[in-house]
Amino acid sequence: MVAIQIRGVSEPTRSTLSAEARARGESLQEYLLDVLDREARDIDNRRLPAEWTAGPLVAEALAVDFVDLMGSERQGRDSQLAGG
Question: By the 8 A CB rule, do 64 and 54 touch?
Fold first, then answer.
């Protein structure tokens, strides 16, 4: 586990964060760890769509005609119903 120390935090900022932690029934450390974890998840969530659109799947994407797709699905279903 890594320890993080932040210097230069103003007293009003520390006081506000401490009050929020108390309101949640947490220690300041627990509250700040939750804040850091949420921020890290948000960063990951913002990064994923960029990775998806930049990845090789975009180059391999094919245009699909919805009407044709539904027709072929319907034919397959009809064949299964007729055979069963």
Answer: no
Helix ranges (DSSP H) in the chain: 11-23, 28-54, 56-60, 66-83
Place of tokens 């949420």: 38
Distance CA 55, CA 21 (A): 40
Q: Is the dihedral of CA 43, 48, 49, 51 positive or negative?
A: positive
- According to DSSP, residue 55 is labeled S
71 vs 8: CA distance, rounded Å = 66
pLDDT tens sequence across 62-76: 677 777 878 888 888
Q: For the whole model, what pTM was predicted? A: 0.55
Longest dimension (CA), the chain: 77
